[in-house]
């Protein structure tokens, strides 16, 4: 069962929110250098959205929780490259966000909570909008097999950084960052 994000935001219970950008986001942005069009999936309170805009990216962001979108808009209101932040469900992304030629996709914990068939549908849609060379940075709870099983074949693995939890049952998903390239 998916998390009841609307309820959790209304109760101000957002343990996934960070006030700082994860080093994998910062490192990837530094590596890409050139800016361009970026898509932030499940932008939450806008921390990563703001960071991308501050580093020269034309950012389109989406989240399904009205309170999160309102906070993200406030978080980004004084950034010179003003991000476009949309209220909508990633499952209906094609009717919510502009179909730009994206060079960078950020999925910081959004898609992994969807069923595999739903992830595949969203990723196929987004892939059709991307222009080469493009990069996708993902975070979620994955096994290596489940992560690779969600990515369209056109995306190639650059690196995978799987967490090392203290206690783990083999085959259980672990917190995992991964970077993918579309050439």
Quick description:
This protein is α/β, with parallel strands linked by helices. The protein is 31% helix and 26% strand.
General description of the model:
This protein is α/β, with parallel strands linked by helices. The chain has one domain (23-174): Vaccinia Virus protein VP39 (Rossmann fold, 3-Layer(aba) Sandwich). It contains six helices and seven strands. A seven-stranded mixed sheet has the order 3-2-1-4-5-7-6. Helix 5 links the parallel strand 4 and strand 5 (134-142). The protein is globular and about 45 Å long.
The name of the CATH architecture is 3-Layer(aba) Sandwich
For the biggest β-sheet, the strand order reads 3-2-1-4-5-7-6
* Low-pLDDT regions: none
Looking at CATH, the homologous superfamily is Vaccinia Virus protein VP39
Radius of gyration of CA atoms, rounded to a whole number: 16 Å
Percentage beta strand: 25-35%
Largest sheet: 7 strands, mixed
- The shape, in one word, is globular
Question: Class in CATH?
Answer: Alpha Beta
